[in-house]
TrEMBL record:
Organism whose genome encodes this protein: Intestinimonas butyriciproducens
InterPro entries reported for this sequence: ABC-4_Integral_Memb_Prot, ABC3_permease_C, ABC_permease_BceB-typ
GO cellular component: plasma membrane
Cellular localisation: Cell membrane
Keyword Transmembrane helix: yes
Membrane topology reported for the UniProt record: Multi-pass membrane protein
PANTHER family assigned: ABC TRANSPORTER PERMEASE (PTHR46795:SF3), ABC TRANSPORTER PERMEASE-RELATED-RELATED (PTHR46795)
Keywords in alphabetical order: Cell membrane, Membrane, Transmembrane, Transmembrane helix, Transport
Transmembrane segments: 17-37, 57-79, 117-144, 164-183, 204-226, 238-261, 291-315, 492-515, 549-575, 587-607
Record-annotated ABC3 transporter permease C-terminal domain positions: 62-186
UniProt KW Methyltransferase keyword: no
UniProt superkingdom: Bacteria
Protein name: ABC3 transporter permease C-terminal domain-containing protein
Amino acid sequence: MFSKLALRNVTRSLKDYSVYFLTLTFGVSIFYVFNSLESQWCMQMLAKSAHYMVESILIFMNVFSAFVSVVLACLILYANTFLMKRRKRELGTYFLLGLPTARVSLLLFLETLLIGLAALVTGILLGILLSQGLGLLTIAMFSAYPSGEAFGLVLSGKAVGKTALYFGVIFLLVMVFTGLSVSRARLIDLMQSGRRNEEMRERPLWRSVLTFLAGVALLLAAYAMLLLRGLLYIDPLFFLMLALGTLGTLLFFRSLSGFLLRVVKSRKKLYYKGLNMFVLRQFNSRIHTTYLSMTVICLLLLLAIGITACCVGLNNTIEQSTASAAPYDLTIQNYSGDTVRVDISARLTEAGFDTDALLEDSLDFLLYYNDPVLTGFSDEEANAAVSLRDYNALMAMQGKAPLAAAALPALSREPVLTGYGAFTGLAVVSDETAARLSPRRQVFAANYRGDKQAAEDALNAAYASPDFHTEETSFHLGTRIGVYMENMGSKILVLFMGLYLGMVFLLTAAAVLALQQLSQAADNAPRYRILARLGAPEKMRRRSVFTQVFLAFFLPLSLAVVHAAVGMTAANAVIAQVGRVDSAASSAVTACFILVIYGAYFLATYCGSRRILKENR
């Protein structure tokens, strides 16, 4: 009987559960997507190559997942509290009819179980689809996919089990807290819920203005400290800057409860237009008590925007460094080349690497020590030199234009070595001048022919062979695939962890806002009934609901965008030290996440608020 009653309650109150169900589904899907990362092809490629970052990425993922599960648990408990508030009179009716507390707790237990199972199944199914989007993102991000493998749905049994375990524990906590709240509830409080009015004392205008100015001043001071000092100095002043920014945000929202209403009241046409007077007074009374939560929501949105945008920007910078660090498929440097020059191509052949069949083109050349007297460049400008003939041959292998002899001597920033630690500046001199310089090292650069991975495997086998090395030589091998794999691990760690945290913070902020607005809509239902009796048209009432929800959602978002713009400026200054920052790409990705998650909650909240008001007409 209770199972049927629980199912009927859930079905009947499906619209009331919409935001709660949306929060659970989004939480489950996000949790599954990022915990299924181990099954993505990029991680499998790293695992096949025994890359050291695989274990680090999985450790970070487990740590972040534990943190995210705590955040989602708090969010789901908060959402459940909202539902219990909406159902107080219903629960009071159960008690009034003589239903024991244990039976009511059992009923709520079954309802939570049904909603939890439905959200878990829906979230995992959505997560499986979204994980394919993650796979497509990795393909676009790395501009590659393993040859001979078909792209399709990937189901991670480990991620499904982990998601079910974590959310099973969360739902169990929800059931326990629900049972405790029911056991402590008093019948009179349940039956009189919604009848208590909140006292609202209007603040003097001068106090609101001073609070607003103080908040703006603190924010400007925090912005100035961030832009002047940067993000690299973690000291007491850094934490002071964070404190100033947080306090400034708090004072900004605190001042709006008196400041915004007075400003709009001074514009009579705007104030008396439609239901603006009602909307502003309702918003003013709410922000009077919710300014603290609006501050927290604004900071959560700041973290979501900042983390997502900065991680995408840093990912693009890492991608740029791949091209500059790997101009050729391989370079072998002979550090003993200043005294002992060897035929590297012949050594590879002796070690079992078929250079004729596996290499498209190659060049064996010398790098020289820079001599400012001969090259005309200081050691700070150029820390190595190369002859014009070798330089133009290297540029031809990269598909770049040659350097004219008339431009000599020239300073080049073009990469000529594959691998990190390349020369920051290269003096290009005539062949005659190069002959007068002291050799620094011998370099063999080449590009593969045909299957690059097969050629890479053959090269690694030859390089590991004792036939290649001798006691008088010291070699260093750098390959484009090696650099690529190194950057793949860094990009996975930076981008996916950033997206993981950014989406969770955005989900948390949007869900809390949605629940607050739905609670406000339930409280405002009697007021809208009065407006209807006074003759306010349906269209005007709908517009007032939209305005209240819009202000609640986009006021903290607007300030968070300002915070994030300043923070991203400082972060980009740090990222720009190692490469160019693609602000457009990071902004576009962040905007997409906000549009999908934040926009979905905004629409769901608006529709839910309208429905609550319609039901109470």
